[in-house]
Design goal:
single chain, alpha+beta, Gyrase A, domain 2, Elongation Factor Tu (Ef-tu), domain 3, six-stranded mixed beta sheet, 21% helix
Length: 353
């Protein structure tokens, strides 16, 4: 166990039996209200794939749903990686510096995804590597809520002005991601030494959480994450990826591009992802949901869940648009626990889907 993880463990960080160093919380689950006020969370279940080489951007441009060739060093973007049938194998947060392009995704699916991407490199001048534990990226911190900006200004003179802005600083890389609760959220990638130095101030001024807290904030931001439980289940539009800027319809071909474009322009989908609360702590990603108006077949699937500090979970759930409109949906069967629909942070533009 490294010194940073030892520090967190001494402060009550709790992992799981399967992944003891992936810290879910610090002894209790934070509520959405606590996150809205301000929180800090070590992010220990996310991994980084690094691509180096002069053809890295063009290689990824031909693999992902978003534009990589015009990605600047002051920005981050969401992107998807699809099968030839247009189904998402992964969703990435993507950014770059002068030498390297980074893809962030769940650690649990990183090895298989990295291996799959490597298969298609062929003669392209790019090299893929696992950058999760490189010294400069050894620690990822999530910071958000109403108090986050003031606390971060302890170390940063300026902050990214808009979601998916990025800056490189002597103390690490700071990326503003999708806002939640009407306030900015940031990912701070830094060294273990810097994290150890700044953590006491963060923990003093903000509520302390772990992976669950960050996932809860992402759910309330309406930002989905494809995990092992949901691989190959969704076309990008089903989980609102293009509404979040994660699909570029003007770029060239990539695996599944024809299906994704057809879904956009020919109205082949009538599905979206929405925000709900579920009074059942066991509700999990990959579980099907059923509309009471059509109880015989599932109307959708849970994309992501996180404990909400009130005995249940908040979740992003993909489902038919008419099920969202009727708002009478249950988990597991038409007799299961009812979903409580919550306002989304952005408009679900149907786009004739």
């Amino acid at each position: 166990m490294n010194t940073w993880n030892q520090l967190l463990t001494q402060q009550g960080a709790r992992g799981t039996e399967a992944a003891p160093q992936q810290f879910r919380d610090f002894g209790r689950q934070l509520t959405a209200a606590e996150l809205a006020n301000g929180f800090a969370a070590p992010l220990t279940d996310l991994g980084l794939i690094a691509l180096n080489g002069e053809e890295s951007a063009s290689f990824l441009h031909n693999q992902l749903t978003n534009d990589v060739e015009h990605l600047g060093q002051d920005a981050a973007r969401l992107a998807g990686y699809c099968t030839p049938k247009g189904r998402l194998l992964a969703t990435f947060l993507m950014w770059r510096n002068a030498e390297t392009i980074f893809l962030q995704l769940p650690r649990a699916i990183q090895p298989a995804l990295q291996k799959r991407l490597q298969m298609y490199v062929l003669r392209a001048k790019t090299k893929l590597s696992d950058a999760t534990e490189l010294p400069a990226n050894a620690v990822m911190l999530g910071v958000g809520g109403a108090q986050a900006e003031a606390v971060l200004r302890t170390w940063f003179d300026t902050l990214p002005a808009q979601p998916y802005g990025k800056l490189d600083h002597a103390m690490g890389t700071l990326i503003r991601v999708g806002d939640a609760f009407g306030a900015p959220r940031y990912q701070w990638l830094t060294s273990a030494e810097t994290a150890t130095a700044v953590w006491p101030a963060l923990a003093e001024k903000l509520a302390v959480g772990g992976n669950d807290a960050w996932q809860l904030s992402s759910i309330h931001a309406g930002v989905p994450l494809v995990t092992a439980a949901t691989q190959e289940q969704f076309v990008p539009q089903m989980i609102n990826l293009e509404l979040l800027g994660g699909v570029n319809f003007k770029k060239g071909c990539y695996p599944g591009q024809e299906i994704v474009a057809r879904s956009q322009y020919l109205g082949k989908l009538k599905r979206r992802t929405t925000l709900v609360s579920i009074p059942d702590a066991q509700a999990a990603a990959g579980t099907e949901v059923f509309a009471t108006a059509d109880p015989e077949q599932p109307c959708g699937m849970i994309v992501n869940t996180a404990p909400n500090g009130q005995g249940g979970v908040d979740a992003l759930v993909e489902m038919k648009l008419d099920a969202i409109e009727r708002a009478s949906v249950r988990v597991g069967s038409a007799e299961g626990v009812a979903l409580q629909f919550l306002p989304m942070p952005y408009v679900l533009d149907a786009l004739d889907l």
